[in-house]
Protein backbone atom coordinates (compact mmCIF):
# COMPACT_ATOMS: atom_id res chain seq x y z
CA UNK A 1 0.00 0.00 0.00
CA UNK A 2 1.28 3.46 -0.87
CA UNK A 3 2.07 6.21 1.63
CA UNK A 4 3.88 4.15 4.26
CA UNK A 5 7.41 3.80 2.81
CA UNK A 6 10.03 5.11 5.23
CA UNK A 7 7.49 5.78 8.01
CA UNK A 8 8.18 4.40 11.49
CA UNK A 9 5.11 2.61 12.84
CA UNK A 10 4.57 1.24 16.36
CA UNK A 11 2.08 -1.64 16.73
CA UNK A 12 1.04 -2.99 20.15
CA UNK A 13 -0.45 -6.47 20.47
CA UNK A 14 1.39 -7.45 17.29
CA UNK A 15 1.75 -11.12 18.19
CA UNK A 16 -1.69 -12.13 16.90
CA UNK A 17 -4.73 -11.18 14.87
CA UNK A 18 -5.27 -7.62 13.68
CA UNK A 19 -1.99 -6.35 15.19
CA UNK A 20 0.04 -9.03 13.46
CA UNK A 21 -1.70 -8.37 10.13
CA UNK A 22 -1.19 -4.60 10.52
CA UNK A 23 2.53 -5.05 11.25
CA UNK A 24 3.06 -7.32 8.27
CA UNK A 25 1.12 -5.12 5.83
CA UNK A 26 3.03 -2.07 7.12
CA UNK A 27 6.33 -3.92 6.59
CA UNK A 28 5.26 -4.93 3.08
CA UNK A 29 4.43 -1.29 2.37
CA UNK A 30 7.96 -0.18 3.24
CA UNK A 31 7.37 1.05 6.80
CA UNK A 32 9.86 0.38 9.61
CA UNK A 33 7.97 -1.40 12.36
CA UNK A 34 8.29 -1.48 16.16
CA UNK A 35 6.22 -4.44 17.33
CA UNK A 36 5.37 -5.50 20.87
CA UNK A 37 3.19 -7.94 22.78
CA UNK A 38 3.06 -9.85 26.06
CA UNK A 39 2.92 -13.05 24.00
CA UNK A 40 6.60 -13.45 23.09
CA UNK A 41 5.96 -16.55 20.97
CA UNK A 42 3.42 -14.80 18.76
CA UNK A 43 5.67 -11.75 18.64
CA UNK A 44 8.63 -13.84 17.46
CA UNK A 45 6.45 -15.29 14.66
CA UNK A 46 5.51 -11.75 13.51
CA UNK A 47 9.15 -10.65 13.71
CA UNK A 48 10.25 -13.64 11.63
CA UNK A 49 7.72 -12.83 8.91
CA UNK A 50 8.78 -9.16 8.86
CA UNK A 51 12.46 -10.11 8.55
CA UNK A 52 11.57 -12.44 5.67
CA UNK A 53 9.83 -9.52 3.92
CA UNK A 54 13.02 -7.46 4.38
CA UNK A 55 11.39 -4.90 6.69
CA UNK A 56 13.31 -3.08 9.43
CA UNK A 57 11.81 -4.38 12.66
CA UNK A 58 12.29 -3.90 16.41
CA UNK A 59 10.47 -6.47 18.57
CA UNK A 60 9.99 -6.12 22.34
CA UNK A 61 7.95 -7.73 25.07
CA UNK A 62 5.67 -4.97 26.37
CA UNK A 63 2.62 -5.02 28.61
CA UNK A 64 0.62 -1.91 27.61
CA UNK A 65 -0.72 -1.52 31.16
CA UNK A 66 2.82 -0.99 32.59
CA UNK A 67 3.22 2.75 32.14
CA UNK A 68 6.86 3.02 33.26
CA UNK A 69 7.96 0.23 30.95
CA UNK A 70 5.89 1.77 28.14
CA UNK A 71 7.64 5.12 28.69
CA UNK A 72 11.09 3.50 28.53
CA UNK A 73 9.93 1.61 25.44
CA UNK A 74 8.88 4.85 23.69
CA UNK A 75 12.37 6.27 24.31
CA UNK A 76 14.00 3.08 23.01
CA UNK A 77 11.93 3.14 19.79
CA UNK A 78 12.90 6.75 19.09
CA UNK A 79 16.56 5.97 19.87
CA UNK A 80 16.42 3.00 17.49
CA UNK A 81 14.65 4.58 14.51
CA UNK A 82 15.37 8.31 15.18
CA UNK A 83 11.66 9.17 14.79
CA UNK A 84 8.14 7.76 15.15
CA UNK A 85 5.33 8.59 12.71
CA UNK A 86 2.49 6.28 13.67
CA UNK A 87 1.23 4.35 16.68
CA UNK A 88 -1.40 1.63 16.34
CA UNK A 89 -2.79 1.14 19.87
CA UNK A 90 -4.17 -2.29 19.12
CA UNK A 91 -3.48 -4.60 22.11
CA UNK A 92 -6.77 -5.73 23.62
CA UNK A 93 -8.65 -8.39 25.55
CA UNK A 94 -12.29 -9.41 25.81
CA UNK A 95 -14.53 -10.44 28.69
CA UNK A 96 -18.11 -11.70 28.59
CA UNK A 97 -20.54 -11.63 31.48
CA UNK A 98 -23.58 -9.66 32.63
CA UNK A 99 -22.90 -6.94 35.20
CA UNK A 100 -24.75 -8.96 37.84
CA UNK A 101 -22.31 -11.85 37.31
CA UNK A 102 -19.18 -9.68 37.14
CA UNK A 103 -16.58 -8.76 39.75
CA UNK A 104 -15.02 -5.30 39.92
CA UNK A 105 -11.66 -6.84 39.02
CA UNK A 106 -13.07 -8.22 35.74
CA UNK A 107 -14.04 -4.72 34.59
CA UNK A 108 -10.80 -3.22 35.90
CA UNK A 109 -8.71 -5.75 33.94
CA UNK A 110 -10.46 -4.99 30.64
CA UNK A 111 -10.34 -1.23 31.20
CA UNK A 112 -6.64 -1.47 32.16
CA UNK A 113 -5.67 -3.14 28.90
CA UNK A 114 -8.25 -1.84 26.43
CA UNK A 115 -8.50 1.76 27.65
CA UNK A 116 -5.43 2.61 29.75
CA UNK A 117 -3.20 0.71 27.31
CA UNK A 118 -4.45 3.01 24.55
CA UNK A 119 -4.05 6.14 26.71
CA UNK A 120 -0.53 5.10 27.72
CA UNK A 121 0.54 4.51 24.13
CA UNK A 122 -1.04 7.71 22.86
CA UNK A 123 0.29 10.04 25.54
CA UNK A 124 3.79 8.57 25.73
CA UNK A 125 4.31 8.71 21.96
CA UNK A 126 2.45 11.98 21.28
CA UNK A 127 5.47 14.33 21.74
CA UNK A 128 7.45 12.15 19.31
CA UNK A 129 4.59 12.08 16.79
CA UNK A 130 4.33 15.88 16.91
CA UNK A 131 8.13 16.18 16.54
CA UNK A 132 8.05 13.92 13.47
CA UNK A 133 6.12 16.59 11.53
CA UNK A 134 3.90 13.82 10.12
CA UNK A 135 2.30 11.90 12.98
CA UNK A 136 -0.74 9.64 13.24
CA UNK A 137 -2.44 8.03 16.25
CA UNK A 138 -4.59 5.01 15.35
CA UNK A 139 -6.66 3.68 18.24
CA UNK A 140 -8.52 0.40 17.91
CA UNK A 141 -11.97 0.68 19.47
CA UNK A 142 -14.76 -1.65 18.26
CA UNK A 143 -18.37 -1.72 17.11
CA UNK A 144 -18.86 -2.18 20.85
CA UNK A 145 -17.53 1.38 21.14
CA UNK A 146 -20.62 2.48 19.18
CA UNK A 147 -23.37 0.44 20.83
CA UNK A 148 -23.84 -1.12 24.27
CA UNK A 149 -24.47 -4.86 24.26
CA UNK A 150 -25.66 -7.29 26.96
CA UNK A 151 -22.81 -9.26 28.48
CA UNK A 152 -20.30 -6.69 27.22
CA UNK A 153 -20.45 -3.88 29.81
CA UNK A 154 -16.73 -4.17 30.63
CA UNK A 155 -15.60 -4.29 27.01
CA UNK A 156 -18.09 -1.61 25.86
CA UNK A 157 -16.99 0.70 28.71
CA UNK A 158 -13.38 0.48 27.58
CA UNK A 159 -14.15 0.76 23.85
CA UNK A 160 -16.57 3.71 24.28
CA UNK A 161 -13.85 5.40 26.37
CA UNK A 162 -11.30 4.79 23.62
CA UNK A 163 -13.65 6.48 21.15
CA UNK A 164 -14.23 9.49 23.43
CA UNK A 165 -10.52 9.87 24.13
CA UNK A 166 -9.60 9.50 20.46
CA UNK A 167 -12.24 11.88 19.07
CA UNK A 168 -11.32 14.52 21.66
CA UNK A 169 -7.63 14.20 20.84
CA UNK A 170 -8.40 14.47 17.13
CA UNK A 171 -10.09 17.84 17.65
CA UNK A 172 -7.31 19.04 19.94
CA UNK A 173 -4.60 18.23 17.40
CA UNK A 174 -6.53 20.07 14.68
CA UNK A 175 -7.20 23.14 16.85
CA UNK A 176 -3.57 23.28 18.05
CA UNK A 177 -2.39 22.95 14.45
CA UNK A 178 -0.20 19.96 15.34
CA UNK A 179 0.89 17.73 12.46
CA UNK A 180 -0.84 14.69 13.96
CA UNK A 181 -3.88 12.95 12.48
CA UNK A 182 -6.00 10.81 14.81
CA UNK A 183 -8.15 7.84 13.77
CA UNK A 184 -10.68 5.84 15.75
CA UNK A 185 -11.10 2.31 14.34
CA UNK A 186 -14.29 0.27 14.84
CA UNK A 187 -14.00 -3.32 13.64
CA UNK A 188 -16.97 -5.67 13.49
CA UNK A 189 -16.33 -9.40 13.87
CA UNK A 190 -12.80 -10.30 12.74
CA UNK A 191 -11.46 -13.87 12.60
CA UNK A 192 -8.82 -13.65 15.33
CA UNK A 193 -8.08 -15.40 18.62
CA UNK A 194 -9.85 -12.71 20.67
CA UNK A 195 -12.81 -14.84 21.76
CA UNK A 196 -10.60 -17.86 22.43
CA UNK A 197 -8.36 -15.61 24.59
CA UNK A 198 -11.25 -13.97 26.47
CA UNK A 199 -12.24 -14.50 30.07
CA UNK A 200 -15.85 -14.96 31.15
CA UNK A 201 -18.03 -14.73 34.24
CA UNK A 202 -18.23 -17.90 36.32
CA UNK A 203 -20.73 -20.36 34.93
CA UNK A 204 -20.47 -19.28 31.30
CA UNK A 205 -19.36 -21.85 28.78
CA UNK A 206 -16.36 -20.08 27.27
CA UNK A 207 -15.63 -22.78 24.70
CA UNK A 208 -19.15 -22.56 23.24
CA UNK A 209 -19.14 -18.74 23.33
CA UNK A 210 -15.79 -18.64 21.52
CA UNK A 211 -17.04 -21.17 18.98
CA UNK A 212 -20.19 -19.09 18.39
CA UNK A 213 -18.02 -16.02 17.83
CA UNK A 214 -15.68 -17.83 15.45
CA UNK A 215 -18.47 -19.41 13.40
CA UNK A 216 -21.25 -16.77 13.51
CA UNK A 217 -19.81 -13.34 14.25
CA UNK A 218 -16.26 -13.26 12.89
CA UNK A 219 -16.64 -12.38 9.22
CA UNK A 220 -13.43 -10.81 7.93
CA UNK A 221 -9.85 -12.06 7.95
CA UNK A 222 -7.36 -10.00 9.98
CA UNK A 223 -5.50 -9.32 6.71
CA UNK A 224 -8.61 -7.77 5.15
CA UNK A 225 -9.22 -5.78 8.36
CA UNK A 226 -5.62 -4.51 8.30
CA UNK A 227 -6.04 -3.48 4.67
CA UNK A 228 -9.20 -1.49 5.44
CA UNK A 229 -7.55 0.16 8.47
CA UNK A 230 -4.41 1.14 6.55
CA UNK A 231 -6.48 2.47 3.66
CA UNK A 232 -8.32 4.68 6.18
CA UNK A 233 -5.00 5.80 7.68
CA UNK A 234 -3.63 6.61 4.22
CA UNK A 235 -6.76 8.66 3.51
CA UNK A 236 -6.39 10.35 6.92
CA UNK A 237 -9.93 9.41 8.00
CA UNK A 238 -11.03 10.28 11.54
CA UNK A 239 -13.17 7.15 11.83
CA UNK A 240 -12.74 3.76 10.15
CA UNK A 241 -15.53 1.18 10.22
CA UNK A 242 -14.22 -2.31 9.44
CA UNK A 243 -16.70 -4.72 7.82
CA UNK A 244 -20.30 -4.54 6.66
CA UNK A 245 -21.50 -5.48 10.16
CA UNK A 246 -19.74 -2.40 11.56
CA UNK A 247 -21.23 -0.17 8.85
CA UNK A 248 -24.75 -1.53 9.47
CA UNK A 249 -24.48 -1.06 13.23
CA UNK A 250 -23.15 2.47 12.79
CA UNK A 251 -26.18 3.38 10.67
CA UNK A 252 -28.56 1.66 13.10
CA UNK A 253 -27.12 3.64 16.02
CA UNK A 254 -27.42 6.94 14.17
CA UNK A 255 -30.90 6.30 12.73
CA UNK A 256 -32.61 4.53 15.62
CA UNK A 257 -30.69 6.34 18.39
CA UNK A 258 -32.24 5.63 21.82
CA UNK A 259 -35.04 3.65 20.15
CA UNK A 260 -32.52 0.79 19.96
CA UNK A 261 -32.78 0.36 23.73
CA UNK A 262 -36.49 -0.50 23.33
CA UNK A 263 -36.03 -2.51 20.16
CA UNK A 264 -32.89 -4.55 20.88
CA UNK A 265 -34.08 -6.67 23.80
CA UNK A 266 -36.71 -8.17 21.49
CA UNK A 267 -34.18 -8.74 18.69
CA UNK A 268 -31.46 -10.21 20.87
CA UNK A 269 -33.35 -13.37 21.62
CA UNK A 270 -32.49 -14.55 25.10
CA UNK A 271 -31.19 -17.79 23.58
CA UNK A 272 -28.36 -15.90 21.89
CA UNK A 273 -27.48 -13.92 24.98
CA UNK A 274 -24.76 -15.61 27.02
CA UNK A 275 -26.29 -17.09 30.15
CA UNK A 276 -24.60 -19.37 32.66
CA UNK A 277 -24.61 -22.95 31.40
CA UNK A 278 -24.47 -25.17 34.47
N1 LIG B 1 -11.50 -9.65 16.56
C1 LIG B 1 -12.55 -8.84 16.57
O1 LIG B 1 -13.65 -9.22 16.15
C2 LIG B 1 -12.42 -7.42 17.07
C3 LIG B 1 -13.53 -6.57 16.89
C4 LIG B 1 -13.43 -5.27 17.35
C5 LIG B 1 -12.27 -4.81 17.96
N2 LIG B 1 -11.22 -5.68 18.12
C6 LIG B 1 -10.02 -5.16 18.78
O2 LIG B 1 -8.89 -5.38 17.95
C7 LIG B 1 -7.71 -5.42 18.76
C8 LIG B 1 -6.90 -6.63 18.40
O3 LIG B 1 -7.62 -7.80 18.78
P1 LIG B 1 -7.56 -9.16 17.95
O4 LIG B 1 -8.94 -9.44 17.52
O5 LIG B 1 -6.48 -9.15 16.96
O6 LIG B 1 -7.27 -10.19 19.15
P2 LIG B 1 -6.06 -11.21 19.42
O7 LIG B 1 -6.39 -11.86 20.72
O8 LIG B 1 -5.85 -12.08 18.24
O9 LIG B 1 -4.80 -10.24 19.58
C9 LIG B 1 -4.67 -9.37 20.67
C10 LIG B 1 -3.20 -9.30 21.05
O10 LIG B 1 -3.06 -8.37 22.15
C11 LIG B 1 -2.13 -8.94 23.05
N3 LIG B 1 -2.30 -8.41 24.41
C12 LIG B 1 -3.29 -8.70 25.29
N4 LIG B 1 -3.08 -8.05 26.45
C13 LIG B 1 -1.95 -7.32 26.28
C14 LIG B 1 -1.23 -6.42 27.11
N5 LIG B 1 -1.61 -6.17 28.38
N6 LIG B 1 -0.11 -5.81 26.61
C15 LIG B 1 0.30 -6.09 25.35
N7 LIG B 1 -0.33 -6.95 24.53
C16 LIG B 1 -1.45 -7.54 24.98
C17 LIG B 1 -2.38 -10.43 23.00
O11 LIG B 1 -1.27 -11.17 23.51
C18 LIG B 1 -2.64 -10.65 21.52
O12 LIG B 1 -1.45 -10.96 20.83
C19 LIG B 1 -8.21 -5.42 20.21
O13 LIG B 1 -8.12 -4.12 20.74
C20 LIG B 1 -9.66 -5.83 20.08
O14 LIG B 1 -10.44 -5.37 21.16
C21 LIG B 1 -11.27 -6.97 17.69
From TrEMBL:
Single GO MF annotation: oxidoreductase activity
InterPro entries per record: KR_dom (IPR057326), NAD(P)-bd_dom_sf (IPR036291), Sc_DH/Rdtase_CS (IPR020904), SDR_fam (IPR002347)
Pfam families (UniProt xref): adh_short
Record key words, sorted: Oxidoreductase
Keyword Nucleotidyltransferase: no
Family the UniProt entry places it in: Belongs to the short-chain dehydrogenases/reductases (SDR) family.
Name of this protein: Acetoin dehydrogenase
Organism expressing this protein natively: Mycolicibacterium psychrotolerans
Taxonomic lineage: Bacteria, Bacillati, Actinomycetota, Actinomycetes, Mycobacteriales
Amino acid sequence: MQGFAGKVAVVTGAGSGIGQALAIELGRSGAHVAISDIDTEGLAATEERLIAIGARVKADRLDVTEREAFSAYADSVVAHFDKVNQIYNNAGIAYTGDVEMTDFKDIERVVDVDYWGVVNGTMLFLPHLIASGDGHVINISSVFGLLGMPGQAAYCSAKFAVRGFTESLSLEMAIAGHPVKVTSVHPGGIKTAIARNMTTADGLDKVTLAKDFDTQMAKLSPEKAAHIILDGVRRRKARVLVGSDAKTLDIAVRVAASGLQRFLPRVLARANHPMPRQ
